[in-house]
Amino acid sequence: MKEFTDFSPSEILSQISQRKISPLDLLPHGDLREKLIELTLKEQLPALDFVSSELLLTLKKMFESKKVDDAKVVVFGGGSGLSNIVGGDSRSSFWPKNPFQGIKEIFPHTRSVVCITDDGGSTGELLKDLPLIAIGDIRHVLLSSIQLSRLQKQYQITAIEAKELAAELAKLFNFRFELQKPTAELLLAECMVNFDHLPKRLGEWLKDLIGHLCNDARLERSLLRPQCLGNLLIVASIYKAVPAEYSNQDLARHPEILEEKIMSGLARLTMMLGVEEYGVMPCTSTPAQLRVQYSNGVQIRGEAKSGATQRGYPVERVVVDYCREPAVYNQVLNAIKEADILVMAPGSLYSSIIPIFQVTQIADAVRNNQKALKLLVSNLWVQTGETDLSIIDPKRKYRVSDMLAAYEQNIPGGTAELFHDILCLSLQDVPASVLQSYAVEGKVPIYLDRDVIRKKGYSPIECGIFSKRVLEERNVIQHEPHFLAQVIKTLYISKKELGLSTNLKLKFDAEQASVQNGIKCDSPILSQRYNAISGRVNALSIVVPEEVVPAEEIAALRDQLINIVWKHHDIPLAHLDCIDGVMGVTLERWHRDQRWDNVYSFYDPKDRHIKIREDQFYDIQKLEVAFLIALGQSLLGRYAERKETKSVCEDGNVLGKVFHLHLAEASQWRSFFQYEDLVHFLELSRMTKTNDPNHFTRLISGEEGFTPPGLLMGLLYVWYLDNRMAYYLEYKMSILKIAQSPLIPEQTKMSLRREQLVRFFREIIFA
């Protein structure tokens, strides 16, 4: 008689099914693959009779001991989510304790394809000066991808020495500095890395990179900004191979030079750090920027800004704008073609997976791989500003089907053949006390609506893929790299050995993909935009009283204004052409009427200067709001011949007032707008055109306040850019959230007017 260990997995399953009471029925979940996952993750099996126990234990050991070293894995995503499941969150102070975990250790042939739309933090500072793709997420994933076996083989070191090496690399790559004039010696001293724990060849190579970093004139400006050293090491590895005669301006004009060096620079890093060859690759070598449109019509550019915004409306559409047709490396396409497993990592919904699959060559390559196991790892928790509001029904809790709807809406051709299975957190494995404490903090899980997912053509796999250790140590629920890798291994073996996989597959609609694929390929490279902003602001006249801003600090004030405009990527450069300078006004000389507002800035069409009250210069946030309100007003320019307010009287009683606006003659006209656009805005601001096409009026009842068109333009300008800076306008715009009632027609008219205002700003002002 054969021992159980002599059976194949399929024979063991057959034996189990023949038992009077199947031991698998004692495991939770209804799906067989979910039961097998539960079996492999469970430390203690249920108490059973001897034969059943032996069958379960044998099956468990088969899944655990099965080698998958030859399987080729490609994981897609952004920074934190991707790096965490590949090898743990390398930015965490806990990572050096266990750096060799996750998918990379169970599947040695793991490669990552990384999103490149990040524009915040150190990456954003680099983009001001260099015509590169965003590399912050690449750095994060690169460090997480180092493998124990490769380090040991490459440098002939022990496991303990490899762990010490990983800890020193974490210090080096995560070191952040704001040094005024960093030198190689100073950086090496400040980062506190013990190079004695690094193999000599690796240590000398890293020191050489730091030396190049500090000696390459093209990187000089970047060193003067707050930076992460890991990002700069990647940049140095790229630039080291670029001949010194090519300036950053040359590289912006000839992108093919950098395209080759980006991949070769990363390949050199992966080899030296013990990562799979081409183990970390950008989804494209073409610089790009994220553009997000909300359901209220507001559209903003920039991943960092969209991640921090609190619009209060669901995201409706996400588009990636490229500076040219996106180029994809052959190494990326070949890795996808040869992959046995394709994994879409968790992460920010709109800034990780979606931007990658808007690159059609990548989406097509994934769809064309018909043999691979294709998995989407669902996010665990709602993310404020992204998944806290459902586009289908903003009033209810966010569900996995809402996440799918977002992918369907924003990926050309939808998600057909991109993935088949969706790995979701099993809430029954999470202690109720933890869910309650999370709820108190406003943290809500993304709920699995299993039946809806199945009807959509996907197979939900519910399992306990969170880290119990991290929960105990830090009271945080996040994906456990080791558990998730085990789940993927179980599903892969189930497919390969047992033929278990989802039979629910959607047909890819190529025609629909072409309709959705309206990507923009003429956006400016951000470093060119930053240079253009700097040129315009440096050309402005800055006149501020010495007691407000000393002469020696004027240069710093200019830098603040440059960064204000840079922060808001939606501001067209043409808006800066509407002003000639900025002037500070002392409290004694500030004579503006503040009865109806507390706005302490305005645009003066006489000298084309923005005037700001002195106390606004002492707080950068106040300065930002004041400058942007006046910049918005400047778009109207010199458009008014005169403005006057006249009382309306009857029987000697003053009933109200009429505000009269007379437009200037065409010869005196100097405005950002054409006449038709200006008239449209005036009508949206509730001004009434008279028989004279240059005369507009507005009736004001009693002692009511009134926001004149110029001030309204400035306030809406700031609100559109970032509603947190103009929260006092939210009450006006909140009508867009209210369901319209046929009982109150005026409500519908107001809502329509607000929608038209938003459209005017999106299509005319920030086109």
Give the helix/strand layout:
Blueprint lengths: L8 H9 L14 H10 L8 H16 L6 E6 L2 H8 L15 H4 L2 E6 L6 H7 L8 H9 L3 H8 L3 H16 L1 E2 L6 H7 L9 H16 L4 H4 L3 E2 H11 L8 H6 L1 H18 L7 E3 L5 E7 L4 E3 L1 H6 L6 E8 L7 H9 L2 E4 L8 H5 L2 H9 L4 E5 L22 H11 L10 E5 L6 H9 L9 H6 L3 E5 L4 H7 L6 H18 L11 H7 L9 H13 L2 E3 L10 H14 L5 H4 L4 E5 L15 E4 L4 E5 L6 H15 L5 E11 L2 E11 L11 H10 L3 E2 L5 E7 L7 H13 L8 H4 L11 H21 L2
Parallel strand pairs: 1-2, 1-9, 2-5, 9-10, 10-11, 11-12, 13-14, 14-16
Antiparallel strand pairs: 3-4, 6-7, 6-8, 15-16, 17-18, 18-20, 19-20
Helix pairs in contact: 1-3, 2-24, 4-7, 4-24, 11-13, 13-15, 17-19, 26-27, 29-31
Plain-language structure description:
- The protein has 33 helices and 20 strands.
- With 767 residues, it is an alpha/beta fold.
- It has 3 domains: 4-64, no CATH class; 72-505, CofD-like domains (Rossmann fold, 3-Layer(aba) Sandwich), CATH 3.40.50.10680; 527-765.
- The chain has a 7-stranded parallel beta sheet, sandwiched between helices.
- The longest helix is centred in the last third of the chain and has 21 residues, at 745-765.
